[in-house]
Design a protein that fits this description.
single chain, about 180 residues, alpha/beta, Glutaredoxin, 2 domains, five-stranded mixed β-sheet, 6 helices, 5 strands
């Protein structure tokens, strides 16, 4: 993500300088009936426009990264929980350990974690379950597990919470915690 923002800011800064340079040259040329501009005014325009360009470019880089990462989808090995009943059946009543990710659609970190979640689901197929819960769609379930930041990873075994992690996590940390319950 940082690379997208840096590239966007650099391109925005360059564009800002080029626009300001052209405008600065126009300001520096005497215009009949107007007072002559000062060289400092030109430099101020260049710096101001470059700063605005950097901010806009950085934001564009962030949006490009977010759009790229939000194109990810859960694999067929990840259960997408859509109701409280399904949560009870697939998570609480499971005889296998379950890694549950509580996420939101707008959470960039949640989307960034999806490839790792997909890999954990593939590696643990048959031995453990990986599930995802949209915390905004299932507020009652999220509330029971005190989800107040995103993502929250909860490992549930035999209906009980055995581990809990908040925020970005290493794939190996989550995988090891899940496999420890086997």
């Amino acid at each position: 993500m940082t690379l997208f923002i840096i590239i966007g800011a650099a391109v925005g800064t360059l564009g800002g300088f080029l626009i300001a340079y052209r405008r600065g040259r126009e300001y520096a040329a005497p215009v009949e009936g107007e007072p002559e501009s000062k060289p400092g005014r030109s430099l101020g325009n260049m710096l101001g426009t470059a700063l605005i360009g950097a901010a806009l470019g950085g934001f564009a880089g962030y949006l490009a990264f977010t759009a790229k990462s939000m194109g990810n989808k859960p694999s067929e090995n990840v259960i997408e929980i859509t109701s409280e009943e399904q949560f009870t059946t697939d998570v609480l009543n499971s005889d296998k350990p379950v890694l549950v990710e509580f996420y939101t659609q707008w959470c960039t970190v949640c989307h960034e974690m999806l490839p790792a979640i997909n890999e954990i689901a593939e590696e643990s197929k048959g031995r453990a379950v990986v599930a995802m819960v949209d915390a905004e769609a299932l507020r009652a379930v999220a509330g029971k597990y005190e989800v107040n930041v995103y993502p929250i990873f909860v490992i549930i075994y035999k209906g009980e919470v055995v581990e809990r992690f908040a925020g970005r996590q290493e794939k190996e940390t989550l995988r090891a915690a899940l496999m420890k319950q086997e």
